Amino acid sequence: MAVLLRNCRIVPELTQKIDGISVDEKEDITADIKIENGKFVEILKSGSFKETANCDDITVIDIKGSTVLPGLFELHTHLTLDSTDYSGNLMYDVPELLVKSYEFAKEYLKQGYTTVRDCGGRGNVTRAINMGIANGTLIGPRIISCGRIITPTETGNSSFGDMYIEADGPMEFRKACREQFKLGNDFIKVMCTGAFLNNAGDPGMQIITLEELEECVMTASMKKSYVAAHCHSDAGIRCAIKAGVRTIEHGVFIEPDTVELLKNTKNCFLIPTGAIGMECLSDDNQNATEDILNKSKLYEEKEKNAINYAYRSGLKMGFGSDIDMEAFKRIPGYEFVARKKFYDFENVDILKQATINSAEILGVADDYGSIETGKVADMIVVDGKPDKDIYCMQKPLKLVMKEGIIVDDF
């Protein structure tokens, strides 16, 4: 059955051009959107669809001027982390991890994220959850998973237990990559520098060699996949760019000349994670260790300056948060808030980062990321005007649609 959404307020930057509507109009632009067989099939000026009153094969919903956005993308999460009590997380066995991770996945869909990229987990449970979602057994976002994170032997690795798999030398990295693909995962995640959240980890230190990272990139490319690189230090970021990774995760210490290098490098993108930066400094985060808090305070301004410079330079960025389930539930829309408050991004740019930019980074923009005829009907209805006030992304959504189906079983 088809669905017709009437009187949808659109964001022009995220919606195809509509006949009879000028994007230069200062008033709100509304459209009627028809969805059939899981895709957007017609997008017309409001009031253009006339013959629907007596049709049995179409459901008509009046959106009443609320804003519609494409389904959101989260490019950096860890579904097996339910809080920043990392030692407590390590106590969960696989059945407990499955239950908690699925709860987190459903919360993502509830907040409008129809595509989620899991950047490291335990027990390969995110792969199992995505299989259940893909075959219709479970309700949730589509999940892109890397399995375990591959890291050199390094101080602090034990902080996340078997979320990490240690490797040293190109051949061990090759084998570790192949193991993740053998388990059915979609991409490879590698630690290139130390981390804020690892006990005694040094985020400013490069910990991988170029040869090790190049081996990961080559192995992933043979599987028609890519590498996501955890990078804080500028040296680590440059190493990752040279090796040919697709995404730079965090990028806290990126320098201006490296920003320019990244802008001129094809198919390599930055995924800032503002929410975890805010969360590590939050008084509400009772689990942050003294080590994490001290590092976060020390580098707070450096991170803000670096990421804001990259943004102002016009660098295309994806949308990731890196926060746990407890924080994600406590502050809905956390990464939207972080990109406005912790960083200093413009509203429309934040929305583009969470939709079309992230779709392009994942190579799926032909099917997702904007409201256009022929694309998959992933869409949310927002209570407010997020292009004018990004904080309305913290409100409960009026509607979530994935693949043309309205989801209400949260």
Task: Characterise this structure.
The radius of gyration is 21 Å and the shape is globular. Helix 2 packs across helix 3 (about 125-135), helix 4 runs parallel beside helix 5 and helix 8 crosses helix 11 (about 335-340). The chain has two domains: about 1-70 and about 370-405, Urease, subunit C, domain 1 (Roll), CATH 2.30.40; about 70-360, Metal-dependent hydrolases (TIM Barrel, Alpha-Beta Barrel). Strand 16 and strand 17 (about 405) form a beta hairpin. The strands form five sheets. It has a four-stranded mixed β-sheet with strand order 3-2-1-4, with no helix packed on it. The chain has a four-stranded antiparallel β-sheet with strand order 5-15-16-17, with no helix packed on it. It has a four-stranded parallel β-sheet with strand order 11-12-13-14. It has about 400 residues and is of the alpha/beta class. The protein has helices at about 85-90, 95-110, 125-135, 170-180, 210-220, 235-245, 255-265, 275-280, 290-310, 325-330, 335-340, 345-360; strands at about 1-10, 30-35, 40-45, 60, 65-70, 70-75, 115-120, 140-145, 150, 165, 190, 225-230, 245-250, 270, 380, 400, 405.
Properties at a glance:
410 residues, alpha/beta, Urease, subunit C, domain 1, 2 domains, four-stranded mixed sheet, four-stranded antiparallel sheet, 12 helices, 33% helix, globular
Short summary of the structure?
The chain has 410 residues and is an alpha/beta fold. It contains 12 helices and 17 strands. A 4-stranded mixed β-sheet has the order 3-2-1-4, with no helix packed on it.
